[in-house]
Structure formats: C-alpha cells, structure tokens
Amino acid sequence: MRNYENVIYAYIIMLLLIICVGLFQSWSIALTILNYCLISAVMTIGANIQWGYAGLINFGIMGYTALGGLAVVLVSVDPVKKAWQVGGLNILGSIWIIVAIVFITRFILKRFGKSLIRNYSIAFLIIAGVILIRVTATPGIEAIESVDPAVSGFLGGMGLPVLMSWIIGAFLAGALAFIVGKIALGLRADYLAIATLLIAEIIVSIIKHEEWLARGVKNVIGLKRPAPYEVELQKTQWFRDFIEKIYSNKLELINTIAQKKIILNQLIIDASSIFVKLCFTSLFLSVVIILLIVTQKALYSPWGRKMRAIRDNEEAASAMGKNIVKEHLFIFILGSAIVGLAGAMMVTNDGLFTPGSYRPMRYTFVIWVMVIVGGTGNNFGAILGGFVVWFLWVEAAPISLFLIDLFTAHLPETNMIRSHLVESAPYFRFLLIGIGLLLIMRYRPQGIIPEKIIKQ
Amino acid sequence: MDFLNAIIILFNYTLIPALAYGSQLALGAIFVTLIYAVLRFANFATGDMMSFGTMFAVILTYYFQSLGFGLGVLPTALLTIPFAVLMMILYMLIIDKFVFSYYRIKKSPPVQFAMVSVGVMFVTQALIRIIIGPSDRRFLDGEKFIIKATEFKEMTGLAEGITLKSTQAITIIVTLIVVSIMFWFLNRTKTGTSMRAYSDNEDLALLSGIDPKRVVLITWVIAGILATIGGVLYGLDKSYRPFVYFNNMLPIFAAAIVGGIGNPYGAFFGGYVIAFAEILLTYSYKKFVAYLLPSSLEPNSLMQLLSTDYKFVVSFSILVIVLLIRPSGIFKGKTI
User: Fold this and answer.
1) How far apart are CA A437 and CA B1, in angstroms?
2) ipTM more than 0.85?
3) Spatial separation of the C-alpha atoms in residues A374 and A382, rounded to whole Å
4) Are A198 and B320 in contact (CB < 8 Å)?
5) B230-256: pLDDT as tens digits
6) How far apart, in whole angstroms, are the C-alpha atoms of residue B206 and residue B38?
7) Between chains, do B310 and A442 touch, taking CB under 8 Å as contact?
8) What is the pLDDT of residue B287?
C-alpha cells in the first residue's frame, strides 16, 4: 500500500460535504450534485491526460463536450422518416461533396510542390465547393426543417440504445481531435490554447445553427434514458412493496388507511426520483472507476513514463527516438475522446440537448480550474478537483447568501447595498472560483493532491 | 445611375460597418498584442478587462446624466472616458501587483501566465456582474445620426441612401487619434523605445539600464487606455452587455494573431482584416448584383456566401488558415 492517506482523507471530506447537503437541503439535490461531480470527474480525467500527462493545453473542451452531446441525439433519437424522404438525398449529396473536396485537396497537396498557384487553386476549390454545397443542401435543409417544425424538423438519429451513444460520442470527439490535432498541435503552447478555444467555438456554432442536424437552438427534449422513468417506477409493484417495507415502522404509527395511502404515495414519488438518480450514479461511478483504473495503469506503464519524459523534456525524448508528433496526437485524441464520453453522459443525465447552453466559461474554463485545483498529472487529484470545484460552483450561491446575511445583518432589509448584494448572489460563484484558482496557482501550484512519481 | 446605387449599397452595408467594427477590434487587438509583447503572455481576461473599463463609463454616464452634465450632440460617455480609464488603470495595476508580478519575477512559463489570467478573468467577470449586473444596457445619448438615409436620398436623388451613425464616425475618428498617438509614442519617445527594447530582448534592455518596473507600469497604462476606449466605443455602437464582451475576446485574439502577435501594426491591420472578412462573407449581395445586372438576370437567391449566424466562424477560420500557412501572422510578429 502506497502512501495514499491524504488522498483518502480528502475524498472522505468531500463525501461528508455531499452528505451534509443531503441532510440539510435534500437527498435529491445531493444526488444531483454527486452525479454532476462524477461527470465533471470524467471530463477532468480527459483534460488531465492531455495537460497532466503530456503538457498539451486544450481550451477546446467545450467543443468535444458538445460533440458528445450531439452523439446522444444522433444515436438514440428515432429517425424522422419523412425528413429523410424529403431532404435526405440533398444532405447525403453535400456530405459526398465535402468528402470529395477533402480528397481533391489532399491530392493537390501531395501531387504538386509548394507554389502560389497551388494555394490559389485550393482556395478556389474550397470556395467553389462551399457554393456547390449551398446549392445542393439549401432545398433539402428547407424541406427537412419544415417537417413538423414544432416537434421535429430534423433528420433524427438512428434509434439505438442510449448507452451506445456514449461510445459513439467518444469516437466522434476523438475523430474531431484527430483533425484539430493535425492542424494545431504544432503550435506553441499559448497559440494552441487560443486555436483550440476558437475551434471549439466553431463546432458549437455549427451545432447551434444547423437545425436539420439536431434542431439547433430549438433543443431536443425527451431523450432516451438508461434508467427507468419515475412515472413508470411509481406504478411497478416491487418498487411499491420495497418502499412500503422500508418505511413500515413509520407507516404503522398512522391510524387511518386513507392517510396511510396518501403518505405512502408521497414517499414513493420521492423515492422514485432518488432511485432514478441512484441508477445514474451507479452508471457514472462505474465509468469513473473503469477510467481511473485504466488511466492509473497507463500512467505507471512504460507508455506513461514515455509521456512524462516527452512532457518534461521534448528534445531529450526526441533524441531518444520517441516520435513526439505522433505521441502528442495520440494523447490529444485519447483525452478528447474521454471528454466526448463525458459530454454524452451529461446529456443522457439531463435528458435534453441544449446547444445554446454550451459556453466556454462553464465547459472549458471551469474544467480547467478543476484540473489545476485538483492536481495536474495525478488522476486522483483531477477527480477530486472535479468534485470540489463542482460542489463550490453549485453551492456558492447558498454559501454567499449566508455570508451576505451574516455581514449585512446590522443593515435593515430595505438597505440598497444589502438588497443589491442579495440579488447578485449567484455571481459570487465566479468570484469564489477565480480567487480559489489564483490562490492555488500561487501557493500550491501542484494542486491539492500533487503528482506522485513512483520510482521503479 | 445604377452603378452608383450599387456602390452606395456596398458602401453603406459593408464598408462603414466594417470600418467601425474593425476599429473596435483593432483597439482590443493592440491591447492583446502589447501585453503579449512586453509581459509575454496571452491575456485571457482581455474581453472582461474591456468590459470592466466600460462598466465605469456606463456608471459615470448615468451619474453625469443625473447631474445634467453632457456634451450636447456628442454622447456623454466621451466625457467619462478619462475617469473610466483612470479607474481601469488602477484596477490593472492592482491586479498586476497582486497576481502577475509574482509570476513575472519567478519567470514562469507562458502557460502558467495564461492560467493565471483565466483566474483574473473569473474574478473580473464576477466583479462586473456583482457591481452592474449581467443585463443589456444602452448608454448612448446625444445625436444618433450624422447622415440619415432619407436625407441622403433627397440630397442626391439616388434610390439608395447612406446612413452614418454618429457612433460609427466617433469610433473611427477616436481610434485613428488614439492609435496614431500610440504609434508616435512607441516609435518616437524614449520611453516607447525602451519598451520596444524590453520586448525585444529583456536581458539586454536591463543591462542598458532600462527600469523594468517602469516599462511594465507604462504598458499597463497604455493597455488600460486601449481597453477602456475600445470597450466604450463598442458599447456605444452596439450596447453594453458583459457576456458579449467576453465573447468579443475571440475575434480580438484572431485579429492579434492574424496580424502577427506582438506587433501593434499587425494587430491594427488584423482588426480590419477580421472585420472586413466577417462582413463581406456574410453580406447578402442580392441587391448589389440586381443593380449591376440587367433586370432579366436578377438573382433569386440571397447571394450570400455564409449565413450571418456564422460571423464568428469566418474570423476563426481565417485564424486557422493563417496559423497553418504563416504562423507568425501577416506582419512578422513578436516585436513592438
């Protein structure tokens, strides 16, 4: 047993905090927070692989998260047959045009030497291609979007089970990371950060505005779930019996049968929502544990040592015959795929896909804060960072309300400063996270649980 | 006559808005580039710092309006800029003292600086939202138009008119003044030269007796002026909304890199490149073409390359292309 004491303590404190929320607010809220903590943990594992193992700065986490979410829609929603009939051909045609453009460009790049004519011809090809795509796609898109616009107006998905989408989301994100990595990985660290940030923004705006794909800002609601629905659960006999058994002591104290029934119903309704959340929790927890085991094994394998060597001294690693470009690309794809998985998990948990909600603040920078605060290069640290920062992010508003009340208690209710502060309580989370990040960067740059290099 | 009408359409819907938007981006881009050249990091708090300066201008505008001060036809906000700039510089210096200076002395890698600036971004954003709230605010007063379309039509007898908003004219004029003073300062004065020397080769500059603290101070002062003025001009032209300012950071970064990061001339130029590309590629040329072609050939479609939803995508794609073909930017980057 290695020296894991402080890790265990940190996790126990975190668990106690969540239990506190359960006791003082409600168990439903506590479980929601826990689920999101687990999802954040998956994201931080992905980001940590890129930043902690390889030193690649990826500010495009939002893009991969959104792509993972898109995968849920594309995989699990039933196909809209009518939309395929009216516009499917046009869309397929434009996809073929895109593929053709890519291949012709590749051909030109390979076949001809570097010259101005080559650049111009590629530019001409792309512009002509864009116009051609617009001409082919526009009638199709218009037809698709006019199919039942209130509830569908998009092509729909493949109608497969939703858990499949987690894998496909990871694949999609990985594929995107391959393209982005080919373009941007040669750049210096801060250029890479900016480039990935902007590319993520491009992806999200495409998802937002291409309504034939996933309804764009009109959102997709009522996605499939890997867990039972509350309403159905409330009708199942075994669940009702189960709840009755748990609360039998309490129920015995109530005399009238009618009242007993009402209270039992209320208990069942509460318990069903908690049960569903527990289902999600167990799913997410198993994902986190599997990822943790795999990444931990990888970190201490020869491959992990190679990555650390590349991170710490690129020139030396290169001199030892390691292919740095290839390794960077591989780890970039791996990390992004895990982030894509997390994005799919999150949309599954919410049951709805809202492209408008993808903002770099929440999906890129907060995740980065998690990795930095938790401990770069250490998976336990990254996961803990996900838990701590998400917990603060959610609970910052109640905490700051409490503090505002405490400090302005001597002021009357109608005082302008007090009411203004109470009104802006939700924004204190930014302050808390920002100051937390600055303090950690200054006084404990290696994070709460620092990287541990085990000598072998 | 048709030809003239076509030109005027293009002038009215692309050239004027692009010049105004480009000026706003240019000021932001020079701010980014200056921080990058002298302090050597990509400042992710750019948008929020601009927003912070603008916030003071908005609050002071409301205050002055309540006192009855004003500039008549010009917006009151112009009067508040000097005060807002002072507050902004003060804020930047405080941030520098408590946050950035530690890493500068430690000579931390640029990535660490970038992460620290993310922390500053969070704090600044929180302060803005706590002080003024996230809602949309308009603080433009005074005369709204210099030339109205109807007046122009009457004057010239043409079918198409030119609209020149006062904010657009103010933006372009103020930008030209500020930028030319700044270039004069950087190139002709001793302090400016010392800043360039510091940016070029820090050790050599220190050897020749340049005071690094002074260089950093001056950089933040110029940065504060640029950030506040850029932010106020954008807010006057569109409206003041903190979230939009955060998003504006992205085309500003694109402009700075396209022009060659670290090079103020490049950043100035890059701002216009991004603005013109965004507007020209998303503008619908239907009316323009209709004037030029005989009526039998009039186009049915909108004649638009990309829908306006993809405004940002255009600038980012330009950035990606530039990074691929010429990573140092159009002008050679990294010296001021």
Assistant:
1) 62
2) yes
3) 5
4) yes
5) 999 999 998 899 888 998 898 999 999
6) 13
7) no
8) 79
Residue A335 lies in a domain: yes
Which numeric CATH code is attached to B2-325? Answer: 1.10.3470
What is the span of the domain harbouring residue A128? 80-155
- For the question of whether the overall pTM of this predicted structure is more than 0.80, the answer is yes
Is A236 in the same domain as A363?
yes
Partnered with residue B71 across adjacent β-strands are B74
Per-residue pLDDT of B309-330, as tens digits, reads 788 888 888 887 887 777 777 7
Tell me: do A129 and A44 sit in the same domain. no
Task: Tell me: do A48 and A102 sit in the same domain.
Answer: no
End-to-end CA, chain B: 47
Using CB atoms and an 8 Å cut-off, which of residues 336-395 of chain A contact chain B?
361, 365, 368-369, 372
What CATH number is attached to the domain comprising A186? 1.10.3470
Q: Which of A187, A368, A432 has its CB closest to that of B118?
A: A368
What pLDDT, in 10s, does the model give residues A308-333? 888 888 888 889 888 888 999 999 99
Contact: B111, A431; criterion CB under 8 Å: no
Smallest Cα–Cα separation from B302: which of A108, A135, A83, A346? A135
Region of B173 please: left (phi>0), alpha (psi -120 to 50) or beta.
alpha
How many domains are there within chain A?
2
The reply to whether A134 and A264 lie within a common domain is no
Residue A152, SS3 per DSSP = coil
The mean per-residue pLDDT over the stretch B20-36 comes to 93
Tell me the pLDDT band of B333, cut-offs 50, 70 and 90. low
Q: What's A364's DSSP letter?
A: I
Last residue of a domain, one of A135, A155, A175: A155
Contact by Cβ (8 Å): B197, B205: yes
- Chain B contact for A399 (CB, 8 A cutoff): no
